[in-house]
Automatic annotation (TrEMBL):
It is an enzyme of class 3 (hydrolase). It comes from Streptomyces flavidovirens. InterPro entries: CenC_carb-bd, Chitinase_II/V-like_cat, FN3_dom, FN3_sf, Galactose-bd-like_sf, GH, Glyco_hydro18_cat, Glyco_hydro_18_chit_AS. Pfam families: CBM_4_9, fn3, Glyco_hydro_18. Residues 226-256 are annotated as: Disordered. Residues 258-547 form the GH18 domain. Its EC number is 3.2.1.14. Residues 164-245 form the Fibronectin type-III domain. This is chitinase. PROSITE patterns: FN3, GH18_1, GH18_2.
Length: 547
């Protein structure tokens, strides 16, 4: 029997490792080969680290990207990768036994694919690969793992502490905020922002807006880069001065009596990438998705994603101004499926109000959309919105997009909040999708995907205290826009007719009509564009022609 120390050494020597090289694409396409020039590395979306693979199929090319890894004959390996976007395949060939593959259809978020293979008795190398499907959307891959015994090729070394960031510069300033940008650092997975030597926020991008600052005051800023190995030294300091007090984003246009709301994606998830100028003219309220949270509870910032193609923040701001000049309202949305902002104290309520107003001043947003899907505290969210309203004035556009479960009862936190801010609330566009069956206002159970689901659930809000002008119907723009609950534009229009005219109803017919109903909402303008604008072309005119 071996001594315990010898056993431990044997186990350590035989420990499984990831034999894939550059598995997170932090070194570009090093160690990888992609067919027909189909592959490139991007900074967003990234599952881990600062980069991911983006591979774009063509009509005659499936965008195959592969790497040959060294394996131990006869050993078993677990192959996995995180993917999103269009159709994505993961496989291994040349195993010497049975080649394997797995796949997933298009996915709007990161999804892990996993399979396993056994190397043949004489096999020392295996090709692992990803590919999409001919003529389909681009797919993204990150954090590939071929986990098993070291075949002699080793694995990627552990990351070192990243280098000190350079190029720190001050951008746009308001009376309460300073925008910063800097050059990215290879191997960094995040960045810390320091003000006067104290860390004030963290993020993964190469820009940040520091808010809650005093007017007409100079501040010194530094940046550090971080990863799992640690934090870099602080960068050289730059000084930024806030603008004098006052400042106003300017009044926005009045929201139409009947309005169409669309969410604009500040990211690329496989839907058509748009600049704001490309958003379809039918949309009256454009919700920019999404603001980002910071290390300060309640505080929000906005980081323009390079994936949407703007050359500068100034270009983005110009698009906002142009949309407002065209009679549209552009608001910043807070939350979403993956986002979360915690507002559960007086301090966090104030942080939210101050930072949201700072974004309105900096970018020209007309207001905010509350799309918090991880629970809210009505008491403090109400305080936050009241404070924001006091700063922004009567021109504030305030919308909400709760999930169906959040609006089943006036006692729910979301419903309580909507009623508590009713005098400043523009519209609640509940999400009638990604939902199970729910109760209608008649006490009956309705399943999503029908006109009855839309009308019977809207009735709860209409009879629960909201004005008809504060109720809208929120649905996906296409089957790819949500996991479930898509309905055709004709069903949406039938629901609008049922609620406003009492016509085209299903089995549920409201006891009275609500001709002042605000309209409809969709996720998203990008998915609408992907589907040839079918949703806005059908629902937009119908909304605008309501009584």
């Amino acid at each position: 029997m071996a001594a315990p120390a010898t056993q431990a050494a044997t186990r350590a020597a035989a420990a499984d490792v990831n034999v894939a090289k550059n598995a997170g694409f932090e070194s570009g396409l090093s160690n990888w080969a992609c067919s027909a020039g189909s592959g490139a590395t991007v900074s967003s979306p990234a599952h881990g680290g600062a980069a991911a693979l983006k591979a774009t199929p063509g009509g005659q090319d499936d965008a195959r990207c592969s790497q040959t890894v060294t394996v131990k004959p006869g050993a078993t390996y677990t192959l996995s990768a995180w993917v999103q976007g269009g159709y994505a395949y993961l496989g291994a060939s040349g195993t010497g036994t049975t080649d394997v593959s797995t796949w997933t259809p298009d996915s709007s978020g990161w999804k892990q694919l996993t399979t396993s293979f056994k190397a043949g008795p004489a096999t020392t190398s295996v090709t692992v690969y990803t590919h999409g499907w001919y003529g389909q959307s681009a797919y993204y891959v990150d954090d590939v793992s071929v986990f098993g015994p070291d075949g002699g090729g080793g694995t990627d070394p552990e990351p070192g502490i990243p280098a000190t960031p350079s190029g720190l510069a001050v951008g746009a300033t308001t009376s309460s905020s300073v925008a910063l940008s800097w050059s990215g650092v290879s191997g960094a997975t995040g960045y810390n922002v320091y003000r006067g030597g104290t860390k004030v926020q963290s993020g993964t991008g190469t820009s940040a807006t520091v808010s809650r600052l005093a007017a007409d005051t100079a501040y010194d800023f530094q940046i550090t880069a971080t990863n799992s190995a640690g934090e870099s030294p602080k960068s050289a300091s730059v000084r930024g001065r806030t603008a004098p007090g006052g400042g106003d984003p300017g009044p926005g246009p009045a929201v139409p009596k009947h309005a169409l709301t669309g969410y604009w994606q500040n990211f690329n998830n496989g839907a058509t990438v748009q600049k704001l100028r490309d958003v379809q003219a039918q949309y009256d309220i454009i919700a920019v998705s999404f603001a980002d949270s910071t290390a300060t509870p309640g505080q929000i910032v906005f980081n323009l994603d390079p994936a949407v193609g703007y050359a500068s923040a100034a270009d983005f701001k110009a698009d906002i101004a142009a949309k407002k000049a065209a009679g549209k309202s552009v608001i910043i949305s807070v939350g979403g499926e993956k986002g979360n902002v915690t507002i559960n104290s007086d301090a966090s309520a104030t942080a939210f109000a101050n930072s949201a107003y700072a974004l309105m001043q900096e970018y020209g947003f007309n207001g905010v959309d509350i799309d918090l899907e991880h629970g809210i505290n009505s008491t403090y969210l109400t305080k936050a919105l009241r404070q924001l309203s006091a700063k922004a004035g009567s021109g504030l556009v305030l919308t909400m997009a709760p999930q169906t479960i959040d609006m089943q009862s006036t006692g729910s936190e979301y419903f309580k909040t909507a009623l508590a801010v009713k005098d400043i609330l523009t519209v609640v566009n509940m999400q009638y999708y990604n939902s199970g069956s729910m109760l209608g206002c008649d006490g009956k159970v309705y399943s999503q995907g029908s006109v009855d689901f839309l009308t019977a659930l809207a009735c709860i809000q209409l009879e629960g205290g909201l004005a008809p002008s504060q109720v809208g119907i929120g649905v996906p723009a296409s089957t790819r826009g949500a996991g479930s609950g898509y309905v055709s534009p004709s069903i949406v229009n039938n629901a609008l007719d049922c609620l406003t005219h009492g016509t085209n109803c299903g089995s549920f017919k409201p006891a009275k009509t609500y001709p002042g109903l605000r309209g409809a909402m969709t996720w998203s303008t990008n998915w609408d564009a992907t589907a040839g604008n079918a949703w806005s072309n059908a629902v937009g005119p119908h909304v605008h022609n309501l009584p």
